[in-house]
């Protein structure tokens, strides 16, 4: 190891409480201005390593049992409280995976920006506002002055991540740690954020530690890469050597799992209708969480119609802000509905009484995009899976919960853990187990695998297909990832600006997209999956959103909106 490294980890060992070691002798270093991607499957210890650098998990029982972390040659274990305050947010900025959880939901963006500048930038008075707006502009935020007056929930996922980056830059750091910053973003937003991080690193001379399960992201960012497995670093080197000529079996498996464009399932067997949506409209009133633009109301969905049969998966795809999640929440009556019908098993869900709706929800369950938001941080993972069973007075004994954990590939040893003690992939599997507990007819999966690495994604998708074939489940699968959709969907509905502009069998839509918007999605997805020279973040095709659609028949069962 070099004595000139900005950050150096030497034989670092870490465990939580009396549990097994989550880091088992990790040695790494990053030079000033360097680029290191830390990759590996979910649960490999990547995030635990990133958090150990700043001693963030000590209150949760994290203990360094061997080795050390050196910052500029000094062991951070010797740092006192004042030193840690200087290190956290000053010398080292951190961009967390889930910006909605990391940002304070009750404080405006401007308050949070000014706080970071005061604590870590030493700024006071009127200059703070100008500096905050400049940082937001540097992170390519539209209208920084307006953003300063808004709350986190009023911003899209991509904008929240940019706010997180601006806050991380407030103290003028020498190292930026980005922990899965693009895991929940669509292809174009992911490319734009990676390009932003790369530009900031080069212009400001920052060192960047990118924690990711996205092999394409690591390839495009260039620099060095370290591959982790079960708490150990198993391979390191320049990214264009490690990913082109992988040596270790784990690296080879990760490279083999990089996304392709194979079309997955065939047409489902004929089944009875489970869900029928007709003319669904979703409108948010002024003052709601979705209201941003000064209008009297915000239409998130217009005249949405589709059907899902038993044993079928319909994928609802589109870029961030297209209205996909609003439609999903409206179907389960978790959000506002302005018009239309939603029939589940022949019953209009929108007209049910509260008691009847409670009973109907046993037949339709949802897996949310953000497991940290949907899981209770104060309850064990086992208790979270048992909760829906208890709500419907069904058996919820230990053996039942163990069986549900096994269904989603989780060890019973995890049952006593809390959400913060599990990896992102493990947390989402718990959320899937909870959705399966009541044996529903319909599962609405809202970006259910977006936070998982490609290897684990494949395992979860295969699990969902097996469950579907065995139980006849119907899936409404919401995603921005066309590689994932190609593996699980039978049909695809493409959304933009709250409208479905194309719907048809997966083979036809992905191989011969008819609508210009679908064609742009396919172009962006193809570029996202195509290797480019390391260190060259992609520039994705641009285009205006299509006008309100009028449908025409493109092929049997394939509808496309005209311009």
Brief write-up:
The chain has 563 residues and is α/β, with parallel strands linked by helices.
Could you explain the architecture of this structure?
It is a single chain. This protein has a domain at 311-334 and 351-363 and 438-562: P-loop containing nucleotide triphosphate hydrolases (Rossmann fold). The chain starts with 6 loop residues before the first strand and ends with a strand. It is globular, with a radius of gyration of 24 Å. The longest helix is centred in the middle third of the chain and has 18 residues, at 187-204. Helix content is 35%, strand content 25%. Strand 7 (175-179), helix 8 and strand 8 (207-212) form a beta-alpha-beta unit. Strands 16-17-18-13-19-20-22-21 form an eight-stranded mixed β-sheet, sandwiched between helices. Helix 5 packs across helix 7. The protein is of the alpha/beta class and 563 residues long. The model is unreliable at 291-296 and 530-556 (pLDDT under 50).
Query: CATH top level of the domain at 311-334 and 351-363 and 438-562?
Result: Alpha Beta
Oligomer: single chain
Task: Figure out the total of helices.
Answer: 21
Q: Please state the overall shape, judged from the principal axes of the Cα atoms.
A: globular
The value of Rg in angstroms is: 24 Å
Report, as a whole number of angstroms, the end-to-end distance. 60 Å
State the share of residues found in helices, binned by percent.
25-40%
- CATH homologous superfamily descriptor of the domain at 311-334 and 351-363 and 438-562: P-loop containing nucleotide triphosphate hydrolases
Mean pLDDT across all amino acids: 84
CATH topology label of the domain at 311-334 and 351-363 and 438-562:
Rossmann fold
The CATH architecture designation of the domain at 311-334 and 351-363 and 438-562 is 3-Layer(aba) Sandwich
Q: What structural class do helix, strand and pairing data support?
A: alpha/beta
- Characterize the largest beta sheet: strand count, sense, and whether it forms a barrel: 8 strands, mixed
* Spatial arrangement of strands, main beta sheet: 16-17-18-13-19-20-22-21
Total strands: the figure is 22
Poorly predicted residue ranges: 291-296, 530-556
Strand content: 25-35%
